[in-house]
Write a structure and sequence with these properties.
By secondary structure, the protein is an alpha+beta fold. It is built from three helices and five strands; from the N terminus they run H-E-E-E-H-E-E-H. A hairpin with a 3-residue loop joins strand 1 and strand 2.
Length: 122
């Protein structure tokens, strides 16, 4: 069964959850929860998934997965004019749990990924 009307799910203004077995974000990610929160004007889309879907013992594999996710996300950001994309632990907007903030002028993904991996102590 699929979602036929997001407006109905989020009306009146509020939050809705979508649970997915799998989601393709440049790599296939399992056990995903998408949280949609909207008011009259603005909204947030939060995508939660186990860190084990990205982190492994192999540095190169983590680097490849993160590059694929970031590239996919930057394409969505540009296509849909999304002003801010943040990766992190809950709450991702907190400076203590924010891992990466995608900006329009970010051109060297590999450098940012290396910094991110080092911060994770993998």
């Amino acid at each position: 069964m699929g979602v036929e009307d997001f407006e109905y799910i989020l009306s009146p203004i509020g939050t809705g959850n979508i649970v997915l077995e799998k989601l393709d974000l440049g790599i296939e990610i399992n056990d995903v929860v998408i949280i949609l929160s909207f008011d009259e004007v603005l909204g947030d889309i939060v995508i939660n998934f186990p860190e084990s879907e990205v982190l492994s013992n192999e540095y190169e594999e983590i680097q490849r997965k993160l590059l694929d996710i970031i590239t996919y996300t930057m394409n969505l950001k540009e296509k849909y004019n999304i002003p801010k994309v943040i990766f992190g632990y809950e709450p991702a907007t907190s400076p203590d749990s924010m891992l990466l903030k995608l900006t329009n002028n970010m051109v060297n993904y590999e450098k940012e990924i290396d910094k991110l991996i080092q911060s994770l102590s993998v």
